[in-house]
Design a protein that fits this description.
By secondary structure, the chain is α+β, with helices and mostly antiparallel strands. The strands form three sheets. It has a nine-stranded mixed beta sheet, sandwiched between helices. Strands 2-3 form a two-stranded antiparallel ribbon. A two-stranded antiparallel sheet has the order 9-10. The radius of gyration is 20 Å and the shape is globular. Helix 5 packs across helix 6 and helix 11 packs across helix 12. The N and C termini lie close together (11 Å).
Length: 369
């Protein structure tokens, strides 16, 4: 068995309101008035109040080469990842007050997930050098998974721990989406991306049942019961990056919400059937909030009560879409506020959609250790 023990976040210091970003875009593309007026309502209808960015808005008003933006990515990715890891360890120690702080040497595997910058050596190598991790730590950098990366990172770490029940794993999702903003690109995808994306990092610690550190698993804990992956063929153009000289240009298809009915719903049904469960037996959906329309389509297509998506809406409202890290933000909110509440059913479903077009599901179960 594999348990989720703690989640920490690295939150950038620039907290910006949705209206500030809307006015910024309005000013930048003032000479595209007719086209711009058509898309400005996206900012008002996104159900986002605030987001956090790694740079002040003035920085985005200037031209930056991909090399310059990537240098900023590497600096802030490392700083925010360390912040998230430190918080993850500190949160664990606070919950288990009778125990000493978990040491970095206790971590056997680092999974580093990102799609918004490039580094070789990969950022996990930088992280290992910045904290007292062991030199024989296993590293698993994952790139290009987009919004699905958080769920996929957790799933792959769980797979590894299933084969190594005496080990621990740290999954880090680092996404600085704002650095992919393209100043001279007034396409629909760039404007919609600007209305949705924010920056942030999250780190989650997983512990195997037979680990020497199993005493750090809370008495009321969250077990990863099963994982399941699905990719719909011939949908490569639905979302992703268009690699150009200026950097990463976001690809967003307006068909994305329709895939809730044709992909996500069917995928969930497969997982539920395998575990002899019904939709009603899922107490909470820890869903990646790709956007307002995605969450609303989940409610509509799958008849999910809005209260079961509460934390997804909450994270979207206060942080925007942080690509792979977002679902971990939702998981942290759920762990902090729901684990002490009595629920009718012990199951939760963590899910995320991403490029490919892909879907990743993790069936979680609340258990008493």
């Amino acid at each position: 068995m594999v348990f989720i023990s703690s989640v920490g976040r690295g939150i950038p210091k620039y907290d910006v309101s949705q209206n500030e970003i809307k006015q910024f875009v309005k000013k930048i593309y003032a000479n595209q008035n007719r086209r711009l007026q058509r898309y400005l309502p996206v900012f008002d209808h996104a159900k986002i109040n605030n987001r956090q960015l790694v740079a002040p808005l003035d920085w985005y008003a200037k031209r930056h080469s991909f090399s310059e933006a990537n240098e900023v990515y590497i600096k802030h990715a490392l700083d925010l990842s360390l912040q998230a890891i430190d918080e993850c360890v500190e949160n664990l120690s606070q919950k288990q007050a009778q125990l000493s702080t978990l040491s970095y040497e206790a971590i056997d595997l680092i999974v580093f997930v990102s799609s918004t910058g490039i580094a070789t050596p990969s950022l996990d190598a930088h992280i290992v050098n910045a904290r007292p991790f062991r030199e024989d730590i296993v590293r698993m950098p994952l790139w290009g998974l987009g919004c699905a990366g958080g769920a996929m990172g957790l799933a792959r770490a769980r797979d590894w721990l299933q084969a190594n029940q005496d080990k621990t794993a740290l999954v880090i999702c680092c996404e600085l989406c704002s650095l992919t903003f393209q100043l001279e690109d007034n396409s629909t995808s760039n404007i919609v991306g600007t209305a949705l994306f924010g920056d942030g990092v999250a780190a989650t610690l997983l512990i195997g049942e037979n680990s020497h550190y199993s005493h750090y698993i809370p008495n009321q804990s969250l077990k990863i019961e099963q994982t399941h992956s699905y990719m719909k063929k011939d949908t490569l153009d639905v979302m992703g990056w268009d690699m150009k000289e200026g950097g990463l240009h976001v690809i967003f298809s307006k068909k994305i919400p329709s895939f809730i009915e044709t992909v996500w719903k069917k995928h969930v049904q497969i997982l539920l059937k395998q575990n002899d469960l019904t939709w009603e037996q899922i107490a909470s959906f820890i869903a990646h909030p790709g956007g307002r329309k995605v969450l609303e389509e989940m409610e509509k297509a799958c008849h999910i009560p809005i209260k079961k998506l509460f934390y997804s809406y909450d994270v979207l409202q206060n942080h925007g879409n942080i690509s792979s890290a977002t679902v971990m933000y939702v998981l942290k909110k759920w762990l902090d506020e729901e684990m002490t509440n009595e629920l009718e059913h012990p199951y939760a479903l963590l899910s995320a959609l991403g490029p490919g077009f892909s879907s990743e599901l993790l069936l979680l179960k609340r258990v008493n250790k």
